[in-house]
C-alpha cells in the first residue's frame, strides 16, 4: 500500500521561508514521479510542482517559479518543497502526490495522495 505523509506545515510571516516534507515507502519513491499540490479555502486544488523519479527534471507553476524548490532525497524516501519569499496567497493546505506520468500537472493523473499539511502566511 502506498502511503504518503506530509509534515512541516506552519504559520509564517510574509517574506519568510518554510520547508515541507513528504515521506513515502521506498517502492513509491523509486517508481513514481512526485508532485505538490495546494488548496486554499474555497478554491480548487492546484498543481504547484513536480519532480521526476531521478530528481533530474523539475517543473513549477508560474505562481511559485523562482520562489519554491522541489527536491527528493532517495536515501530518506522523502520529498521536499522549500518555499521562500512567501506571500499571503501561498496560504493553503499542501498535498504531496505520486504519479506514473512524467511531468504531469493533471490532478487525475496522480494515483496516491497524502493527507496534507497546512501552510499559513500572515502579514
Low-confidence stretches: none
Radius of gyration: 13 Å
Give the biggest beta sheet.
Answer: 7 strands, mixed
- Binned, the helix content reads under 10%
Structural class: mainly beta
- Amino-to-carboxy terminus distance: 41 Å
In one word, what is the shape? globular
What does this structure look like?
Strand 5 and strand 6 (58-60) form a beta hairpin. The protein has one helix spanning 26-31; strands spanning 4-7, 11-13, 18-24, 33-39, 46-51, 58-60, 68-73, 78-83, 92-99, 112-113, 117-122. It contains 1 helix and 11 strands, in the order βββαββββββββ. It starts with a strand and ends with a strand. The mean pLDDT is 94. It is mainly beta and 123 residues long. The strands form 2 sheets. Strands 2, 4, 5, 6, 9, 10 and 11 form a 7-stranded mixed sheet that branches. Strands 1-3-8-7 form a 4-stranded antiparallel sheet. Helix content is 5%, strand content 47%. 33% of the residues are buried.
Supply the key terms.
47% strand; 1 helix; 5% helix; mainly beta; four-stranded antiparallel sheet; 123 residues
Mind sketching the topology for me?
Layout (H helix, E strand, L loop, with lengths): L3 E4 L3 E3 L4 E7 L1 H6 L1 E7 L6 E6 L6 E3 L7 E6 L4 E6 L8 E8 L12 E2 L3 E6 L1
Parallel strand pairs: 2-11
Antiparallel strand pairs: 1-3, 3-8, 4-5, 4-9, 5-6, 7-8, 9-10, 9-11
Short description:
This protein is mostly beta strands and 123 residues long.
Amino acid at each position: 500500500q502506498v502511503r504518503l505523509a506530509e509534515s512541516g506545515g506552519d504559520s509564517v510571516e510574509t517574506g519568510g521561508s518554510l520547508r515541507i516534507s513528504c515521506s513515502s515507502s521506498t517502492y513509491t519513491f523509486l517508481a513514481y514521479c512526485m508532485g505538490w499540490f495546494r488548496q486554499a479555502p474555497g478554491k480548487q486544488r492546484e498543481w504547484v510542482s513536480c519532480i521526476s523519479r531521478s530528481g533530474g527534471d523539475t517543473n513549477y507553476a508560474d505562481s511559485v517559479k523562482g520562489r519554491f524548490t522541489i527536491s527528493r532525497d532517495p536515501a530518506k524516501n522523502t520529498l521536499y518543497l522549500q518555499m521562500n519569499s512567501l506571500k499571503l496567497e501561498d496560504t493553503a493546505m499542501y498535498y504531496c502526490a505520486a504519479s506514473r506520468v512524467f511531468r504531469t500537472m493533471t490532478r487525475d493523473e496522480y494515483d496516491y495522495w497524502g493527507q496534507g499539511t497546512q501552510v499559513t502566511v500572515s502579514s
